[in-house]
Design goal:
CATH class of the largest domain in chain A: Alpha Beta
Largest sheet of chain A: 7 strands, mixed
Oligomer: heterodimer
Radius of gyration of chain B: 43 Å
Largest sheet of chain B: 7 strands, mixed
Number of helices of chain B: 12
CATH architecture of the largest domain in chain B: 2-Layer Sandwich
Strand content of chain A: 25-35%
Number of strands of chain A: 39
CATH architecture of the largest domain in chain A: 3-Layer(bba) Sandwich
Helix content of chain A: 25-40%
CATH superfamily of the largest domain in chain A: Phenylalanyl-trna Synthetase, Chain B, domain 3
Number of domains of chain A: 6
Number of helices of chain A: 20
Strand order of the largest sheet of chain B: 1-5-6-10-9-8-7
Structural class of chain A: alpha+beta
Number of strands of chain B: 10
Structural class of chain B: alpha+beta
Strand content of chain B: 15-25%
Distance between the termini of chain B: 86 Å
Shape of chain B: rod-shaped
Number of domains of chain B: 2
Helix content of chain B: 40-55%
Order of helices and strands of chain B: HHHHHEEHEEHEEHEEEHEHHH
Largest interface: A-B, 89 and 83 residues
Distance between the termini of chain A: 90 Å
Chain lengths: 786, 339
Amino acid sequence: MKLPLSWLKDYMNTDGIDDATYAYEMTMSGSIVEGIENSAKEIKNVVVGKILKIDRHPDADKLVVCQVDVGEDAPIQIVTGAPNVFEGAVLPIAKHKSNLPGGIKITKGKLRGVESYGMMCSTDELGISDERATGVLILPEETPVGANIVDVLGLDESVAEFEITSNRPDCMSIIGLARESAATFNREFAIPAVTVQENNESVTDYASVEIQNPELCSRFVGRVVKNVKIAPSPEWMQRRLKACGIRAINNIVDITNYIMLEYGQPMHAYDLEHVEGGKIIVRNAKEGEMLETLDDQPRVLSSSMIAISDEKRAIGVAGVMGGANSEVSEATTLVMFEAATFHPVAVRRGAKALGMRTEASALFEKGLDAENCLNAINRACQLICELGAGEVVGGVIDLYPGKKEQRVLPFEPEKMNRFLGLSISEEEMINILERLEFTVKDGKAYVPTFRADVEGMADVAEEVARIYGYNKIPTTMMQGGVTVGGKTPKQKLEDLLRNVLTDCGLFESMTYSFIDPKENDMVLIPKEDSRRNMVVISNPLGEENSVMRTDMLSSILKVLRTNYNRRNTEAGIFEIGAIYLPEGETLPRETQCVAMGMYGMGDFYDLKGKLEQMLETIGITSYGFAPCSENPSFHPGRCASLLVGGKAIGVFGQVHPKVSANFKIGTDVYAALIDFEALLAGYTTDRTFKQLPKFPAMSRDIAVLLDASIPVGEIERIIKKQNSNILESYKLFDVYQGEQVESGKKSVAYALSFRAEDRTLTDEEVNAVMDKILADLKAELQAELR
Amino acid sequence: MREQLTAIRATATDALNQADTLAALEELRIQYLGKKGELTAVMKGMGKLSAEERPIIGQLANEVRAEIEGALEEKKAALETAAADAKILSETIDVTMPGRRSTKGKKHPLTTVLDDLKDIFIGMGFTIAEGPEVELDYYNFEALNIPKDHPARDTQDTFYIDENVVLRSQTSPVQVRVMEQQKPPIRIIAPGRVYRSDAVDATHSPVFHQIEGLVVDKGITMADLKGTLEVFVKKLYGENTRMRFRPHHFPFTEPSAEVDISCFNCGGEGCRICKGEGWIEILGCGMVHPKVLSGCGIDPEEYSGFAFGIGLERTTMFRYGIDDLRLYFENDIRFLEQF
């Protein structure tokens, strides 16, 4: 919403309030000023000049050379191509070293070899008009030569741009903002009395109105103007419209727009001679009904819209746009004005369905004050008289089926003070409310009709607080019930996982939770896999962000792809991210996945080590791994399931080369996907102290030769199976395949450590266990001691 | 014999002075004091001396021996010290060469800042609540006093799954879920992802994070809201930070406010970060709307509360001077390793 500050003076005294103070105070009382612009500030050194003499340009047919009097000792020479110059013309001259709106600087120069000391200006160059003018602006002959153009044209206008919140449609008007301004600065606010000179005819002899569905139209006010003389509106009105961003058209249309700005009440003007039977009917549109709107577009209406029609056909979509068939034209002599209030939701839906949000519809859909209609239409008729644009026919058509009682709320100063943490006196509260046109008496607050947003104590308290000043409210600490802050085990585990995974050298990533359904193919998820059952966004930004992920692999691979493309030689990342699994309920199950991915940072065993470190840090000490060759996203020979309590809780390994190729990553990629819930189930911070050993350990190394195809896990199974209470630990320290051993075999070496809590072990005790292990290795794995 | 001993004393002292390695010293020890050493040989010949001479020469021999032994020890200690010094000297390294680091990753900057925020509010007795991202329209809008066709829905371009299910456009639905399940006193923050159909650019992302705050209890005032946020602001941005409240409108709070803080970069003078205004908007807040309370089964006559919503991306941008929202979601290692 734009407000030319000079317009405020119609309703209040603004003396002594500069632009910056105005913007600040209004913002702090709740009407946010986004900025104040003054195009005159951009205009410098532009004066009124008079052309004394025009000569042809020696080298250009379309240019002329003018001698211009700009009120200085000697005339200046200006070369121009403007088609409308003549000797004696008075016009704006941008002199050497002048500035024009839009940051344009004018300096002297040569045009086709002839010196020119400035420029003659058109309306668009001065920022008065947005349209490209065909010639320079010719001023009245009597305009004083040498005068500053800003003063001559009254361009020194500051225009404030407001951001009005959706609860305050009353502030979408000059009067509403003036009321707020007066309340903010604690000054007198008054709307000048509106008087209409009407003839002694009766409007009912010209027109009638019928509201078929009162749900749709709470009030419809109409007045008729005859002997209309269509003409341009006066300069002052055009300037105000323009300052608010509205183009001037003709006096009738301009008046309707002026009233919309001033009163916040959209108006419409019908050419009454084109309204069949002079009758206006407000009704539901018929399904498929056709109407050509003012913008010359054919529109198909539907039954949810409100149609304005005459006896035969639709002549407008209520609250959105009028029809071309009853449009005011140059030939119009009989006009009917409409000021009405329509059902906000119906207008909103209609505008949306037609794809035409107009300024009028934007107002209607916020819910307008029906009490405003009559004042607005009378003000329009007053302007008709002032502009001599026609003769106002006596009487008003006023159908008001939706009249509402004024809202009355209890006035509770103590309660409000308690709620706000303030101690303002009752008098001060009343004073503030009265400035906002509330009436307070007998313990009741009477809410003005234009404030439909004020419904209860909290709303009244806000009115008091914002005018009193939010920043005068003290800062206090909460009293009342005791609460204990803290994190849940789930939240603690998330923190811990982030700590351990960053300790492992991985960076935390954050990726979008919606993906492209094609990514399912890129990671080779089988067609019948349940992960292809996804939550689909009905209005996505694009296909690439259209489904909620059910798997984290592609998210991780996209991050690695970015890093790979940017030539980062290595990248290791993790994310504790949500996946969204539709399971038949209204809402999907949202669960988390701990995903990791890396390239250039080692191989399968580096990733596996990180997993082991993670598990042990969170207190899961009993876990295992099983080869997994069936997951199509992973390399069949380099993939394992992570087992906890015998259950697979995740998968990890080298990403299938086909998959990494799909993501255009030209190196081996490793990834892990672990179920967070399963980790949470095993997560514990319980640790029990174990006595430090008092007796020495004995260590034994063994190296065995066995078939290369046997996993070392088998050896460990046999070591563990002994259930020896003196075996303290075992550790793989060498695996060898090559020249030194028979082909098809490998040599595997373990270091074992033995210890008893209560004594120093003897060789015999240890040897007994070792012998048993070797015997079992031989029996079960045909492993020979090397 | 006396002459022999005197000669040994002289030559030994002389030789010891000359010795410059531990090995040479050992040789000298053997030469003089060894089983076949010179002094030993002399002492072996003592038996041939007369009874009068023997004690005199014996004493002298012992003196010479003690002297040589002492000198040996002294020299040995000196040589050892010198050798240790020389070794230490030879171990000099170039301390300006780069240090070796263990490879560590980093948390995402959004997580780091969120962790700070959580700590601040946990310190004030808050717990952390969570709610679904794929959310019912009811919780995201209707229960927050934003009925269908409410104009406020225009300001949030929402992703819809179907008529009744949305990707939550704010973390405020968690407020409602908490109030439905928990009796006052309530003090929670609810951080999480939210979604709006904004095309991606330096300041917009279809996915971003908010931190919702909610307090409901008897006698909670707007002054308490200001007090709580002041603690938060000063802890996060520094003790000298000033805060101001501007009236605003949110359908689910009344009164509502936006909160600005004095620019942490220029202290309020006006700079590039605050666009010359000296103030930076950091959050929206207000007193929980009575309709929202009663919709959740909490009597607004008995209880009151406040709520606030903080944008995590923005807060993090301010913290580190990050100027482009897209960096958060690209996850370039060269970005992530900076924080």
